[in-house]
UniProtKB/TrEMBL annotation:
PANTHER family given in the database record: SERINE/THREONINE-PROTEIN KINASE 17 (PTHR24342), SERINE_THREONINE KINASE 17A-LIKE (PTHR24342:SF16)
Top-rank lineage group of the source organism: Eukaryota
Any one biological process term the GO annotation gives: positive regulation of apoptotic process
Protein name, UniProt field: Serine/threonine-protein kinase 17A
UniProt lineage: Eukaryota, Metazoa, Chordata, Craniata, Vertebrata
EC number from the UniProt entry: 2.7.11.1
Top-level EC class: transferase
Length: 326
């Protein structure tokens, strides 16, 4: 860890190397196209650097949220991105700007969008198991690198894992370090809450958070990538939380139609309630599912649904949503 990094007891880093520019972002970049995405407090837009013609993604972060000054959180996000600069599967930070109300992070553009889109897609758009194996290796290599550096992401989900391109399928870029922390300075973090569906039991129980917390989320993520179903999602938050704390997971043939049993075995090594008994990123990378030589069966859940069954209800035009287990 560089000496210049200053840490607080909750794992937030307050010293950064990046010079935050106060000249106008607009002087150096043109915004192009529509929004790339948005989260709770940020809007991300595609932009082109005038001096180089290169495309980037500009993440506009509001400094005030719910009446609170959140500049320290944004500085922590920058610090974590800096510490992951050599990680090939983490989005790179190019520059940062500050205005009276916002901090703008100029990031590498992951033009393929969120893996979320392929998780909710139908047949030909959805990932095959072979795709998921390749992408899972990249996610795990990226996360193993973070964990080796004592960084925990704490918000791994299909909206925060992007692709360099969608067709043909590119490589993984992990984004959104807004909840990330450094473990080496973290005495007790019990208050951070990620997204209900992806959150580990220890987070719900206000037990200490560790790198294993990310591994749970990766288990949920891989489950969703292979099946299109969100394993713990209930009709209400309370039901989701109950499903998580009881580790109520459906591994039946119904859900895993056409998916190899090694994949199911892999997920089972992650969706383990006791964080100490959960597989680590390094252990996952050695799992036979990711190191097999045989071609796994194609991923059939959506294909089957559309070819064997006449749809009972015609598909709606509403926003895509993940399916919850029936
Ligand atoms: P938040 O902290 O508000 O969730 P994110 O960093 O997750 O912000 O960004 C919100 C969304 O913007 C992401 O889910 C993704 O769709 C899009 N996005 C973020 N970073 C990039 C990037 N570097 N390239 C392309 N799209 C991005
Ligand atoms: Mg996000």
């Amino acid at each position: 860890m560089p000496d210049s990094m200053t840490m607080s007891r909750n794992g937030m880093v307050s010293k950064i190397q990046t010079r935050i520019r106060t000249d106008a972002f607009k002087n150096n970049y043109d915004l192009v196209g529509k929004e790339l995405g948005r989260g709770k407090f940020a809007v991300v837009k595609k932009c082109v650097e005038k001096s180089t013609g290169k495309e980037h993604a500009a993440k506009f972060l509001r400094k005030r949220r719910k009446g609170q000054d959140c500049r320290v959180d944004i500085i922590n996000e920058i610090a974590i991105l800096e510490s992951a600069a050599g990680n090939p599967f983490v989005v790179s930070l190019h520059e940062a700007y500050e205005t009276a109300s916002e901090i703008i992070l100029v990031l590498e553009c992951a033009a393929g969008g969120e893996i979320f889109n392929q998780c909710v897609a139908d047949n030909d758009e959805a990932f095959t198991e072979k795709d998921v194996i390749r992408l899972a290796k990249q996610i795990l290599t990226g996360v193993a690198g973070l964990h080796r550096n004592n960084v925990v992401h704490l918000d791994l989900k299909p909206q925060n894992v992007l692709l360099t391109r969608a067709h043909p399928l590119g490589d993984i870029r992990i984004v959104d370090f807004g909840l990330s922390r450094r473990m080496d300075s973290m005495e007790e973090v019990r208050e951070i809450l990620g997204t209900p569906e992806y959150v580990a039991p220890e987070v719900l129980n206000y037990e200490p958070i560790s790198t294993a917390t990310d591994m749970w989320s990766i288990g949920v993520l891989i489950y969703v990538m292979l099946t299109g179903v969100s394993p713990f999602l209930g009709d209400e938050k309370q039901e989701t939380f109950l499903n998580i704390s009881q580790v109520n997971v459906d591994y039946s043939q119904d859900v895993f139609e056409g998916v190899s049993s090694l994949a199911v075995d892999f997920i089972k090594s992650l969706l383990v309630k006791n964080p100490r008994k959960r597989a680590t990123a390094e252990e996952c990378l050695k799992h036979p599912w990711l190191n097999g030589h045989s071609n796994p069966l194609p991923h059939l859940h959506n294909a089957l649904r559309s070819s064997l069954d006449e749809p009972e209800n015609s598909p709606s035009e509403s926003e895509p949503e993940l399916e919850s287990p029936a």
